[in-house]
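Dear colleague,

Following up on Tuesday's group meeting, I ran the structure prediction for the two-component complex that the binding team flagged. I've pasted the input sequences exactly as they went in, so you can double-check that nothing got truncated or mislabelled along the way. The structure tokens for the whole assembly follow below. Feel free to forward this to whoever is handling the docking comparison.

Inputs:
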Amino acid sequence: MPALRELYQEIILDHNKSPRNYRKIEDANRKVEGYNPLCGDHYTVYVKYENDVIKDISFDGAGCAISKASGSVMTSMLKGKTREEAEQLFAEFHKLVKGELNPEENMDHLGRLAAFSGVSEFPARVKCASLAWHTMYAALNNKETTVSTE
Amino acid sequence: MQGYSKDGTDRTNMTKADIDVVAPDIIEKLDRVKGCRHHFPLLRQRVNGKALVYLDNAATSQKPQIVIDSMMRYYQEENSNIHRGVHYLSERATQAYEAVRSKVQHFLNAASRREIVFVRGTTEAINLVANSYGRNHVEKGDEVIISGMEHHSNIVPWQILCQETGAKLRVIPINDDGEILMDEYERLLTERTKMVALVHVSNALGTINSVKQMIGLAHERGVPVLIDGAQAVPHMRVDVSDLDCDFYAISSHKVFGPTGVGVLYGKEKHLEAMPPYQGGGDMIKSVTFEKTIYNDLPYKFEAGTPNIGGGIGFGAAIDYVNNMDMGAVAAYERDLLEYATENISSIKGVQIIGTAKEKASVLSFVIDGIHAHDIGTILDSEGIAVRTGHHCAQPVMQRFGIPATARASFAFYNTKEEIDALVSGVHKVIEVLG
């Protein structure tokens, strides 16, 4: 039960129920679909990317609470960031959900992302948490194809 | 209305005393089924601090002690390669392995041992038929019929065959309860149809298809039928002679045996005419660089050293199932399924996917606004193992317009107490995420 509470923290439950930036960006210049064939999570990430800055970022689609909350927290954190900053955060997030980063020691820059530390206790759910991030990464690197976690 | 005597078939006018004479026998039979639970050592463990509730039997069944022991004994006392050595151990292993072939023949009521081909599992059995029979009978413009509730293993091999030959894959639609539309099936059966491949019991929905009737309809037009029986054999007696199917595919691990072993039953006339699927040792009579003479049935289709230890374990599993009263097992499981259906469907926000009139022990469900994966994780924290996802049947999910379901699937060793635990677990899911 403690592990379960760690996984479904209040922030995650809140972002699952009312996901932020859950919309299309009509004039997005980057748009990539992300798909997790194992459980059917399926999202599209939209980015308005200009002069190396993420002017706007959003997502829509369907999936579990972890994947949806992750897309919501990610989009709310990345607005205004450069590609390098976004990728650095992704690298840290990836370490966090794999249990390779202590959230307490990195609170200053992890912020709300720390809520995903509980995922590391559930190896099957790491892909759910990372899906939106992989998709964002592909969008910034101008990969047009669909991203798959498999 | 006049009632018949006690031993008659009409019990409409029976008195309570009469019923009491009948009932204890049934109760005793059902208790005997329930009593088998202790044969399965794995079920005694605790998961996440709770007693394990294993409800993922459609993915794989647990193994009784005698199956585990038989494999250990094989490796401790008999291990040797088969069909090759003249030495004592090789003879012993060959005899033990070949005895399993006869057990399978009787288990499925096949006409001959020659019709029982050992493979890795249902998937390999279907691939064998699609490759060997399919490539020799299906041409451009022909059609292969499958149903809308097939597992990927009974879709993809036919899709590959159709792509390579230029044939068309036709799909029989299913209704909202998850039943095959028979009228549509009859409409799809034409002179272009060269093969029908159907699932006996759906792994995602639990539907038991009227395969005997469907085989008859195909045969009227001279079309052979393959049945994917992976989910059928754990729940019912299957008689391939009575069904009159041309091919029947099963996996050992779904029916209390080990993984990595399965069987393709094929009518001898088909198997005899089919070319080999894989080449190698054991499937030949003689080899020169110019020409190879293939072995007789069924060895023609068994290239390479098989999973001998797994085969021995499968034999023990068949012995185990043969010792059970399958009528009582079916009655017990029907009772479990009814109990689970009633209790799960009465929870607010829960919808059952797959409500066919004829169903085996599968209960697929969705909860409003909650993804199946989250259901699975929260149930797991309560020690309850269910499958979540698309169950290797994505077209079924698309048919119902859902990304995934949570699926509880039962075996005769499950109990009503475990279903009560599932019901509490679902309430907890809603409490956490609702």
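The domain at 2-148 of chain A is CATH 3.90.1010.10 (Sufe protein. Chain: A).

Cheers,
M.
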